[in-house]
Amino acid sequence: MSIDEYILQHIDPESDYLKELYRDTHVRLLRPRMASGHLQGRLLKMFVEMIRPRQILEIGTYSGYSALCMAEGLKEGGMLHTFEINDEQEDFTRPWLERSAYADRIKFYIGDALEIVPRLGITFDMVFIDGDKRKYIGYYDMALKYLSPEGYIIADNTLWDGHILQESHTTDRQTDGIRAFNDYVAQDGRTEKVILPLRDGLTIIKLKIEN
Ligand SMILES: C[S@@+](CC[C@H](N)C(=O)[O-])C[C@H]1O[C@@H](n2cnc3c(N)ncnc32)[C@H](O)[C@@H]1O
Fold this sequence. Notes:
A seven-stranded mixed β-sheet has the order 3-2-1-4-5-7-6, with helices on both faces. The chain has helices spanning 3-9, 16-28, 38-51, 65-73, 90-98, 113-120, 136-145, 173-186, and strands spanning 55-59, 79-84, 106-110, 124-129, 147-156, 191-196, 202-207. The chain has a single domain (3-207), classed as Vaccinia Virus protein VP39 (Rossmann fold), CATH 3.40.50.150. Strand 2, helix 5 and strand 3 (106-110) form a beta-alpha-beta unit. Helix content is 40%, strand content 21%. Helix 3 (38-51) packs parallel to helix 4. The chain is an alpha/beta fold and 211 residues long.
């Protein structure tokens, strides 16, 4: 048994609904590896329970797996705003979100989060960055503008399968984007940050609090 299998046997199971969504993602969509999956999904739900956000922003909905996991952790009155730039994704994802038990806690937008979020006038308590790897610095600067003082930013794929350390990937623009993001966040005096080496790497960021 691998350590990954062991972990999955010793954490909360995913619901049948999420299992079915994960399967459907693999059957019907290109690049199904982008979906969060069992372990990261349970972790995102737990982050929501720890942070207790009223408003969550997700950049990059894809099939809706992570959106459903975060919505599951929300308390009464909480809302997840999730953005997907690829309009061809809507026919797959919208029914999965709307038929779920958490439909009333999710607002699904088709469009570029970088354009729409500034027009919403919402302050977010948690931001999950999981969009285009080349635009992570833009998402981060935008997230900081609309983040509540005690809010958290969680950025996915920040170890990019280890490519960030490999010379052969220096010409890949997504790898360059993640490297630039990691360097930018590391030197940013406004925030505290840690990287969790879970799955593809998750960076957890919060604003520094003046004591
Ligand atoms: C890695 S997938 C998201 C996976 C999903 N969060 C999950 O964990 O199950 C990234 C998605 O972000 C979308 N995307 C890229 N740039 C975006 C932007 N500026 N605004 C909104 N969505 C974007 C892509 O089309 C793609 O579907």
